[in-house]
Inverse folding.
């Protein structure tokens, strides 16, 4: 296939268009233009969710077969990590064809069925759009690499070498996020190409208008197939410094450069990330999404940024860029530090022009939330983090398996590792397999994930007790907690969209806040961030609330009930949520 200006046959195009229109016509979730505000977005790593054909790899029909479960959980949208044809070096983030589905996952018809079935359940499908790079097996790259004069010669980031004492060297010190130089020598062109990620993921040249057009056509194609939005992969990395300046080194406490897992001096990303040009592209992507007037197509950004002001800019000066840049400042705080959580949540509440925050605690690139605590209180902590996620004024993004308390299961032997960075970076960098293990549905063969003799990653030993079937039978399970708190986020006016005001702001053990709806409904939330019991007392007179009566909406299992804001007892990592009367 050669899809620069992709020559789709008329028949194929007509079928695709018809399928897209069909999918659009039954739109329910996206008919409300604000459907994404205060929504719950569930990330699925398709390889690991449900295998329907016994090959040990999850697939689209498997996901479709689990939609009733997801509907019961109460989610509004599914973000699918990439399902396009791919050599799977980076498990789908190396795309070789943007217009199809990898046969491992199914067909375009399976995708259309998933969209239609999800929509019947009021669930939107969000596609992962990888714009920064393609696979080196993509026809665009093959053509670009074939000579310095071909029509796509300038579609990627090609540079001449630097010669030092007669030795050929890369043009500068930029490093790949996945280790080693970000420049790969290409003998045919006698030039280097830039790859922010794996060698097999060459970066596109976003200064080239043809590249932009090609990607906007991809966006249109999936909108025609009925998607509810896009998660824009590595979106802050589209542009690099035009002068190719060396990055500054990151210095350790001794003033010497830090070394990464591969033994290279770590560098900043001043010249390779979050350059201002990305905002032009975001506006253009937004315009394409807005061409669809029959429903609201949203843009979510993978935005690891350094400050709330950078985050604010991602929404656009005129709300014309991303609906939901991910706020990584809250969920990826490395420790359970109440003042830090309070400050970061408060920033999201007060310093992004009233836009909608998107909070997230884990994903397929980072250890699951169990990274915070591994002791007996793990599930208590899970309930507490769920309270922070779902009882805040935010759109909540969760990762499959969070709701049953799946644990990160890092490989213990190098020979078991599947993620390439875990192989090249072993033992310092063990890769991302630990957070990508198969979903644990029941205590049977392959945890109900597959019928294969061998699954693509092993089933973690925890599946005997940590699984959907067991937790559906247990009224005190974390799964039940997730169902209840998600339902409350939707049904309670204060928790749905009320403002969020931090309470007891000198307390270093308990994070507490008030949610207050425009209609005057008020809910207090108290989360014990410690393994020791705590008590809290609230005086809401500064918030214009004089009474102290409260009605419990949710509390961690085993907590004593209360009717007064003057005394709320919390066990280890305990949660109390109550409606002020
Ligand atoms: C971010 C994705 O989440 C990650 O899994 C991937 O490896 C890189 N972008 C490169 O696409």
């Amino acid at each position: 296939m050669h899809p620069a200006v992709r020559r789709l046959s008329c028949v194929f195009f007509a079928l695709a268009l018809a399928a897209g229109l069909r999918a659009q016509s039954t739109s329910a979730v996206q008919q409300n233009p604000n459907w994404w505000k205060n929504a719950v977005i569930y990330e699925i790593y398709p390889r690991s969710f449900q295998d329907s054909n016994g090959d040990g790899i999850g697939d689209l029909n498997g996901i479709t077969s689990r939609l009733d479960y997801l509907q019961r959980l109460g989610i509004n949208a599914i973000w699918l990590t990439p399902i396009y044809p791919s050599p799977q070096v980076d498990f789908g983030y190396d795309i070789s064809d943007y217009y199809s589905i990898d046969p491992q996952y199914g067909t375009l018809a399976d995708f259309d069925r998933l969209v239609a079935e999800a929509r019947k359940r009021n669930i939107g499908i969000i596609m992962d759009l990888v714009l920064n790079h393609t696979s080196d097996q993509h026809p665009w790259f093959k053509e670009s690499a074939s000579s310095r004069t071909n029509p796509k010669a300038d579609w990627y980031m090609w540079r001449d070498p630097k010669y030092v004492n007669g030795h050929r060297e890369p043009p500068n010190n930029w490093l790949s996020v996945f280790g080693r130089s970000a420049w790969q020598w290409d003998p045919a062109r006698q030039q280097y190409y830039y790859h922010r990620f794996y060698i097999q993921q060459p970066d596109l040249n976003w200064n080239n208008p043809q590249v932009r057009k090609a990607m906007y056509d991809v966006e249109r194609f999936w909108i025609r197939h009925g998607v509810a939005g896009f998660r824009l992969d590595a979106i802050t990395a589209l542009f690099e410094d035009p002068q190719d300046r060396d990055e500054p080194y990151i210095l350790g406490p001794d003033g010497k450069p830090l070394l990464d897992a591969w033994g290279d001096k770590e560098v900043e990303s001043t010249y390779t990330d979050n350059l201002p040009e990305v905002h032009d592209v975001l506006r253009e992507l937004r315009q394409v999404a807005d061409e669809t007037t029959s429903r609201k197509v949203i843009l979510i950004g993978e935005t690891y940024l350094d400050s709330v002001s950078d985050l604010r800019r991602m929404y656009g000066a005129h709300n014309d860029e991303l609906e939901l840049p991910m706020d990584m400042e809250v969920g990826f705080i490395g420790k359970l530090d109440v003042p830090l959580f309070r400050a970061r949540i408060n920033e999201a509440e007060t310093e992004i022009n009233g836009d909608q925050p998107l909070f997230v605690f884990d994903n397929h690139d980072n250890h699951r939330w169990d990274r915070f605590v591994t002791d007996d209180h793990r599930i208590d902590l899970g309930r507490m983090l769920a309270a922070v996620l779902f009882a805040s004024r935010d759109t909540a993004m969760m990762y499959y398996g969070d709701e049953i308390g799946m644990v990160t299961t890092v490989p213990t032997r190098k020979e078991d590792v599947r993620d390439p960075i875990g192989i090249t970076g072993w033992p310092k960098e063990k890769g991302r397999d630990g957070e990508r293990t198969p979903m644990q549905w029941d205590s049977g063969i392959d945890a109900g994930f597959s019928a294969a003799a061998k699954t693509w990653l092993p089933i973690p030993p925890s599946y005997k007790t940590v699984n959907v079937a067991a937790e559906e039978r247990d009224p005190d399970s974390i799964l039940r907690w997730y169902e209840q708190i998600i339902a409350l986020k939707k049904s309670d006016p204060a928790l749905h969209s009320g403002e969020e005001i931090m309470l007891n702001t000198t307390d270093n053990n308990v994070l507490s806040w008030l949610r207050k709806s425009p209609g005057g409904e008020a809910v207090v939330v108290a989360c014990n961030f410690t393994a020791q019991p705590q008590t809290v007392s609230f005086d809401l007179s500064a918030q214009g609330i004089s009474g102290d009566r409260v009605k419990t909406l949710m509390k961690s299992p085993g907590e004593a009930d209360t009717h007064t804001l003057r005394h709320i007892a919390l066990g280890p990592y305990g949660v109390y949520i109550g409606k002020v009367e």
Q: What stands out?
A: The chain has a mean pLDDT of 94.
